[in-house]
Amino acid sequence: MNEALVTKRERRNAMWIALAILMATVIVGMMTARGPSPSLGAIRASAMVSGLGTLLMATVVSRVSPYPRWSLYGAAGILALSLLVSTVTTPDPAAWVRDTRQMAWMFPWFVMLFGFVGRATGKGWCAPAHPKAGWIMLVTAALLGGVASVSARLGSWL
């Protein structure tokens, strides 16, 4: 995205919308799988809410972000998919609530953070103007999503 085309007002409005999405995603995601031992369907619904919130965040943020849109959508897709995978790899729903649900808030926040940080003209590998910046975002999302995918399994082993 060309920063010259995005006004401060558009950026500020996108930030408020992004914060509302983050708040709604966290609250609804937590309420969907509440209690110490929810059902498997409840944790899958919670993961879907958090995944959809992450994808929605990418849609809002991509309009004003200096990062490539493909990297924001790709990172959001990886994170959303990892939440769904985490419900399959969990030994039981209570373990998912204990070990994975606590990380779900980070996924839409991760996309929001990358979307609003930095200028396109910055220096360094993570600067949006760098040719590898989008790939770095995808790798970071894959690492974060990988941790979420196996956190309940690891938590039950430890």
Question: How would you describe the overall organization of this protein?
Answer:
The protein is mainly α and 158 residues long. The protein is 70% helix and 0% strand. The chain has helices at 8-32, 40-61, 69-89, 93-99, 106-116, 133-157. The chain is globular, with a radius of gyration of 16 Å. The N and C termini lie far apart (44 Å).
Q: What is this structure, in a nutshell?
A:
With 158 residues, this protein is mostly helical.
**Alpha plus pi helix count:** 6
Range of helix content:
over 70%
Main beta sheet: strand number and arrangement?
none
Quote the distance from N terminus to C terminus: 44 Å
The fraction of residues assigned to DSSP E strands is under 5%
Structural class by sheet pairing and helices? mainly alpha
- Low-confidence segments, given as residue ranges, are none
